[in-house]
Every structure is written in C-alpha cells, then in structure tokens.
C-alpha cells in the first residue's frame, strides 16, 4: 500500500494534508523520512513527527478455515482488522488455528518474525496415525526436510498416542506440516497456543483480548 493511502485510511490527515506532511519531511517509516508514493510492507512502523503513536497489541484466536494474509479475501484476518489499523504478525495457514498477535507496532513484528528465542512459537498437533517414540529425537536434532532443507532443532514432546507439542524458533511456511508429511503422518488439527510469553489461554475462536501491558518495553 502507498504511504499516502495508508495515512488517509488511518484518518490521520486528508489527502492534501498527507502529501504536505510527507513533502515537509514529517512522516517517518522505520525511523527514516518517507517519500511520496513509497510502498509500505505490513511490518513497517509509520510515525508522524509531533504525533506520538499509541501502540496496540491484541491476542487473537484465528479460527480454522480463515485465511490470515490474503488481501483478495475480504474475510481474511488482515482485511478484517485493517480498518482498525492493526495487522497480524506472521501467519497461520487457512487450515490451522490458534494464536495470532494483532498490532500496529512494526518493531515488534520484526522481532517476532525473526529467529529470536524470546519469541518461540508453541503448537499442539494431532495426527491420524499413532506417533512413533522416536519423533521428538528427529525434530530436536534439526530435521532435514524435502522442501525446506535443514531446520533448526525444535523442542518436541508426545502428549498422547496421536498428539504432540512442538516448539519452534523459526517460522518457515507450512513448516510443521512439511515435517510430519515427510515422516508419513496426516495432520488432523494444528493449533498455535503460545508466542513467547503470550498464551492463547481461554480465548475461543474469533475472540481477542488486550495484551498491551505484556508488551510494555
């Protein structure tokens, strides 16, 4: 999205005012002066000089069957929350469910999307077949996959014959699905229950709760 449209959509200024703010060097993207017409990424941090930005942070339970980042789908998470100036950090694929962080803080987004162990992601995964006892050792050694190559070690625990807990420090696309598919398992459900110190808790699908205090830097 172009910066001019972004600022207008946020209600921060009229079209004419936006152009002048940018021209006068009062708009900053990731700490650098913006230019008219520049394109923004979802994780960019936009600020107007003299207008302190209020950051918001929500824990959101993404329901299964809902897209996260599909701009063409008006029911997707990113399209639904755009009007509130919030966007999801990272993604959960359409058939997965669980915790997303919604925010307007690009700085935090970049931290969570990095391989910072402070923001490890925890998942509960159920498969149709019985799990072999050696699965945790394979995941924790840093699995070599058919599509993603060599992965970082992932802490893993079998918690029932068909359910395991997986903790990742990286977030490659469809990572857990690819890992288990390579080992000939069929996933029945995949739920993210934690990002760093933020847990899904008692949220139900579609619900949110404020976690602003937990992200006070």
UniProtKB/TrEMBL annotation:
Swiss-Prot/TrEMBL keywords: Isomerase, RNA-binding
InterPro entries assigned: PsdUridine_s_RsuA/RluB/E/F_cat, PsdUridine_synth_cat_dom_sf, PsdUridine_synth_RsuA/RluA, PsdUridine_synth_RsuA/RluB_CS, RsuA_PseudoU_synthase, S4_RNA-bd, S4_RNA-bd_sf, TruA/RsuA/RluB/E/F_N
PROSITE patterns for the chain: PSI_RSU, S4
Gene Ontology MF terms: RNA binding; rRNA pseudouridine synthase activity
Domain of life: Bacteria
Annotated family: Belongs to the pseudouridine synthase RsuA family.
Record protein name field: RNA-binding S4 domain-containing protein
Organism, scientific name: Candidatus Yanofskybacteria bacterium RIFCSPHIGHO2_01_FULL_44_17
Lineage: Bacteria, Candidatus Yanofskyibacteriota
